What does this fold into?
Amino acid sequence: MRTWFTALTLLVTAATAAPTGAQTLINGAGATFPYPIYSKWFDAYTKVDPEARFNYQSIGSGGGIKQISSRTVDFGASDGPMTDEQLKGAPGELFHIPTVLGADAATYNLPGSPKLKFTPDVLADIFLGKISKWNDPRLAAENPGVSLPSTPIVVVHRSDGSGTTYIWVDYLSKVSPEWQQKVGRGTSVNWPVGLGGKGNEGVAGQVKSTPGALGYVELAYAVQNKLPVGLVKNAAGKFVEPTIESTTAAAAGAARTMPADFRVSLTNPPGDDAYPIASFTWLLVYKEQPNEIKGRAIVKFLWWMSHEGQKMAPDLHYAPLPAPVVKQIEGRIKEINYRGKPLMVAR
Amino acid sequence: MRSNLGDRIFRGVLRLAGSAVLLLVLALAAEMFRTAWPAIHTFGARFLVTSVWDPVAEHHGALSFVYGTLVSSLLAMLIAVPLGIGAAVFLAELAPPWLRPPVAFLVELVAAVPSVVYGLWGIFVLAPLMRTWVQPFLGATLGFLPLFQGPPYGVGMLTAGIILAIMVVPFITAVSREVLLAVPNSQREAALALGATRWETTRLAVLRYGRSGLIGAGLLGLGRALGETMAVTMVIGNRPEVAISLFAPGYTMASVIANEFTEATSDLYLSALIEVGLLLFLVTVAVNALARLLVWSVGGAVKVVRE
Amino acid sequence: MTARTRRAVNLAMGGLTALAAGLVILPLVMIFAFLLFQGASAVNVDFFTHLPKPVGEDGGGMSNAIVGSLILVGLAAGLGLPIGILGGVYLAESRDRRMPWLVRFLADVLNGVPSIVIGIFAYALVVLPMRRFSALAGAVALAVIMLPIVVRTSEELVRLVPSSLREAALALGIPEWKVILRVVLPTARAGIITGVMVAVARVAGETAPLLFTAFGNRFWHQGLDQPIAALPLQIFAYAIAPYDDWHRQAWAGALVLIGMVFIVSLAARVATRGRFSGVR
It folds into this structure.
């Protein structure tokens, strides 16, 4: 009896003692879309501010919105902007702070990994289930030199609430009236066909291991796993590949007319070089922070992220924020406060 | 006997511990019912018969999950019950005595493997196996049946059923073995005295006597399969749809909760998920209760705890 | 049927049932072999001492997940064992009328509840009021899972203690509560410890209830009221991702997990070998 008791006491003491010293742990959760760059940032940031540790769980944008609204995390992350209704349901005013620009790439698993061209209606019809084989004449028409197999297209979508999904279906809703009517937009939709994968990681994993699969993932996931990405015809009629340049071009128009709350859709924009399925991704933080120490750490990070952090984005195939947007973000960060006192120390 | 203060306090403490178990189960049921109420109230009986799961429009119907759970579990039973009872017969009746302890031990180890490890193996070994060999073979030979039509995804209902069978079969074996061992020796001796072979003894005396217990063992396995989460989530394809083909992806009650719980953005969505959990809870309790009744009917306090 | 046919059938059935037993064990062999083949290379010192690396970068380890699992299981044991053992003693020793039957029935009910449902319960009970995910919530979920196993095994083993021992102690004038604490429990101790080990092995591999209680953590835990990493959670996250390095680490993690579980199960088996054989 006594040895058990001693063992338990020792264990509890060991467990409750923070082994890495008095650090502030800041918990966040949400989008898998920017997870590669976020995990890089949070890792690099431990050297910039050794007193703060940012623990980010990539559970999907839906999860991010849910957890920050129930205040079970300190910040959320989403690439689908919160709806007015969701914002109203949160216990405080939530800010959307853009972090990077990314692209939803159409990725697939075909022998030889050919570079395929997709038109908007073909993409919509594949996801509606109307085009079910790779050698369908409408696909072949745009890809004359490629020998497409007669195997079925295994559509892969997200099984969890996802901002990556939001970006994708937002685009499909704009280019396909049938999609808009039948399915609509949201972080979780009623998919007509396909397998579900959990997170960008799950979809990429599924596509990588299933011959004939076609899914949508954030560009970084396709590149890091050496999966081919398709070109998509944009509003100007050009076939564009998702790259940092084409993503930045997609944001060019929006950067000039950015709304104050940063909630904007970048899909199907005008411009010859624009990739049509791109988006900002946002961190969700409360304007009034409940905890001063954590709030200050968060604000410091946001500042670093929008300035020094942006330099790390291109290596991971995300496009950095346009300069006018960064300026606007600075103003927003200064509004974050603790009990009325702004947390941003004057720079 | 003089009941002094020490005894009374001690008995009180014991009673407290006992009632903690009671309170826990009641609290569990009550809490689930309370949080699921909004969904129960909104969807009513439609919840059980609609398969539309649309978080955007807030239409929630659990039919595809109920269907997926039932089909994958029944499929698992089809495979696991014959195998499990066969292995139990081997261990309890037909195997040479020196072989019994090591084999029994190995069976116990199979039961001890965590679900997530099975899932891991399922993704990287079983699913590719299904996709490359088994499903094309079944499609070619039995493809005229709607059960085996459709593209070979590798993941899907059939794979989930197989992995469930693998996970559940050691429990069925262990409980069946206990049931068989609980059959009184007099039964066996009577048969042997009449000149029966070992197998005939087993068939006539033991299996017949223990029949209800064996059914119970099968039901316990079913109860286990119904609630299995991780391994199934990793190989079922996560598609909320009722499909006839075993090659098609599906979804189970436990999987949808695992995948979507942390992100149910609206209260009604979360409530709907908890209602699914409540359904699962009620079904597993009913199956388990029935199973135990049957198992106990054979040999009194047959040891079924260590599952 | 001739005698020869009957003998042939006997042999055939012996063979078939042996085959069944073999098929039951086969997955174990396959999985273990695969884990060894794929994961052994990744189980190195780094694995046990390093934290996970950022997404897409090779290397790193699962040190926080291993420690996290140990903490969760230890805490769960701390919460669940006292109630479980005392509950078992209650069922064995109580002279109450109907309550023991009810408690026993409900313990069996609890045993059959899927672990994900218990996770929902812990979420409602601990995560929501505390407004955060925590090691505590995860431990509560695991404790609830452990409880019925510990209760029933304790009950059985306390019952097994020969009444002659009890009577001798009582005859010496020792009050009943002291008899139970100082005579009965110590005698049953080895068996109870076995039951505890079985329960521990069972919860060490649980993933589902931790998904929305312990939540996971890329760093070392910062206290019991904060999210914490756990080995099964990490294996799950890595398994469904596309990175090959993560897959290798998942295999390695699975190998470590399964190793821990097997060792505990083996130890439990060895401890009861020959003893208490009457209970079966």
Notes: The two ends of chain A are 59 Å apart (CA to CA).
